[in-house]
Amino acid sequence: MGMNTEHRKSHWETIYETKALKDVSWYQPVPQTSLSFIEKTGVSKDAKIIDIGGGDSFLVDHLLDLGYSNLSVLDISKAAIERAKERLGKRAEKVNWIVSDITLFETTEQFDVWHDRAAFHFLTSQEDIKAYVQNAKNYTPKNSHLIIGTFAKGGPLKCSGIEITQYSDVSLKSVFDEDWDQMENLNIIHPTPFNTEQAFVFSRFLKRG
Description:
The chain is 30% helix and 25% strand. The protein contains 6 helices and 9 strands. The chain has helices spanning 5-18, 32-41, 59-65, 78-88, 126-138, 169-176; strands spanning 49-52, 71-75, 95-99, 113-116, 145-151, 158-159, 162-163, 180-191, 197-207. The strands form 2 sheets. It has a 7-stranded mixed β-sheet. Helix 1 packs parallel to helix 4. The model has no long low-confidence stretch (mean pLDDT 88).
């Protein structure tokens, strides 16, 4: 049974209001896999890039450093986004910040790169997963790029106290198969600040033209 939006939102607001930056398992000063996958897409520096569940992740800082200029960060938690804005200071004005549950997200924008290493694996009901895939399809043009990093098989069944869905490169492919071709996969071990390890799988997809 999946969490409803209200529960999901209050859960994440509490986490971001009570835990310090380095006290969360996903803390990653340099999100190397995400950065290299984005660079491999070959998109221009003014391509529209959205980070789903970006929270207070450092990805946006590094993308700004690399000269990417059309960045959006979406998170269900207002507290997470406020933390990221505070950290970036004046540079936060260069980013489009969106507080939304991704399954309910509505926009008139089209994104050239849809990146997510944070949100997708927290969706456990078929209804939510379907809504996510539909939104990814609706808000990306042909030949756009989808980069998804999720908990892999063999990793934890819960994160931050709530259930997650584990994926392999094969099961990720099957979820997005209708509109995207899987271009590359990488299995990585993410070291957490608590000296534990989490298995992740990253897939890069190209939307069919």
